[in-house]
Write the structure tokens for this entry.
Amino acid sequence: MTKEVMAPEAPVKKKKIASLDKRKARAGWLFVLPFVIGLVFIYLPILWEAISFSFFNYTTDNGITTKEFVGFKHYSTALFGDADFAQSLLVGLKEMAFNIPAILIFSLFVAVILNQKMIGRAAFRAIFFLPVIVSTGIMESIMATSYGASGNGMDLGMEESATDKLASTMALEGLLAKIFSSLGVGTGLVTYISSAVSSISGIINRSGVQILIFLASLQSISPAIYESCQIDGATSWETFWKITFPMVSPMILVNAIYTIIDSFTTDTNTVMGIINSTYVSTVEHSQHISAAMGWMYFLVVLVIVGIVAGIFSAYVFYQRRD
Amino acid sequence: MTHNMDSKPQVMRETKNKIRVDFERTSLKERMKVKYLSVNFAKNVLWYIFRLLLLIGIAFVILKPFYTIVIRSFMAPADFMDTTVVNVPRGLSAAIYKSIIVDIGYFKTFFLTLALSLGCALLQTLSCALIGYGVAKFKFKGAKLVFLMVVLSLAIPHGTMQSAIFYRFQHLDIFGIFNFLAGGARTGIEGIDAVLSKIHILPDNFVGGISTIKSVIPLFLLSMTGLAFKNGLYVFMLRQFFRGVPDELEESAYLDGANTLRTFVQVILPLSIPMLITVFLFAFCWQWTDDFYIPLFFMADRPALMTYLPQASQNIPASLVSIFKEATAQSPSASYRQAITYACGLMASAPLIVLYLFCQKYLVQGIERSGIVG
């Protein structure tokens, strides 16, 4: 009888090997860690402070601030007390429905042109970059003063040129209206196009960021794809719709959402104007009412962003398998 | 062979070791005709002209408001008091520019702003790329929530939270830990409060959190965490871009033994140079001309930054006052002050144009993105 010798069992290593999915999830958290830290320690406290401001009344007495919880009182004052607020919210929505497609189409068109080889491309690109500088910060206020006349004798000329400009755009509008009505197109389109012409300078000056984003996106398309298209005999029109458009579609989503947010939250927006003027007005608790207005407004903006993102996401093409 | 005699190669000239042969070919006239009288050529020319006219037209609309600004900043002092001069000056003078460089110390302002903007822009580009890559390529619980918060941070303008932001950085604290360790925590119960106030692990200035106001710390903190001005846009852009990068690229890098960070740095980032440069440009420009955060965080300190350059017209340098008085025998008019503001604005934005011209060289098509053959 031979004794079976049991080989001593190798000690089972208790080291856990995380699955690839788990490891990837961990890596994902590592990548977004800077933002999460900022969110928890900086942004959310700020947000909390700012939101709670609209639910309280602060009264400072001898340097001691006391808070008094008032619930939704400021919100109802903002909604029903100020007739302008609800009204201009609607006007703002209408404006957006018109401006956003115009800005998107225009900026994509310009980006495609600026991406082509031509003489003086760098100069044109630099000029189209100017609206990015002018759109915010110190240059914004300087440019604003250059448009408005300040009552000085020297500024008469500028006023004149402003009326000149108005006259010329009005003439153009009239001409366009004539052309389109003679073509027998519906009046809806006529008003759309003529108002697009009249606000063309506004659209151009608000498209700077979008043009740059589209340009960066266009440059990320592999030239090999275009080459194979050309070999297959596709026209440039077909190439645009079959290659360029799907490839920049992720950035169309970005630009749509950015344009919405930007046009809603710049200081020149009517509703933002009301919010800002309420803040400095002499009404009791005006700052709290202004904050309440702001939060309601941003909620509306976020809902619109959500709807637009939902619609656009269905058509966005990503070059990957899912 | 049914060859025409005409198409035979014709020997033109023959020397000892050279021979020149002319083959029968379509005449130059014919060739030009085919090339330039086709519909295709006409279409190209028309498109070229249309494109050029369109670009010039749009450029005109953009540049038009700059005309007044540039002209007035160069106008001679006497012209400001002459009512017949509108936008065509009689005399030119660069005195304002000279004064900005010499009296206001443009170069010091330039280098300080450059250091600050470069630091902030690089931090923002890096952090936004990391965050964007994280939400684009990894599936983890909460990824959607993180992205939602990114969009939220973009949608709520910082201007409306001004006082909350200021308060936060004046009393920067981690859940009251600093306050607690410095003995500043209070509960309202006497016995516990007496114990709490005995804690002095951290010095007294930590009571109520650290004040980071009047320093660049708030700006850098915001930049590092992707919460600075419009950073939500950068994260969104980069996320959309990274989502379009085929997964096969990363998979092959993983197979070669690279970890996620290395894959990101060595494989993904080189592909995204146009995107990264665009983000960097935005971040740099908006930090350079910023007039919200710097006055908010520095208050009355007023460091020599571009933010304060246009305010020079409120406090006109003595040399300009004397130049104006010499020319007009009056103290500087409102329109002259305006002209100084214009000159400052132009001086502030000129470096940005130069930077853009430098960067746009890298904004070219031709970076192979897919990296996959077949």
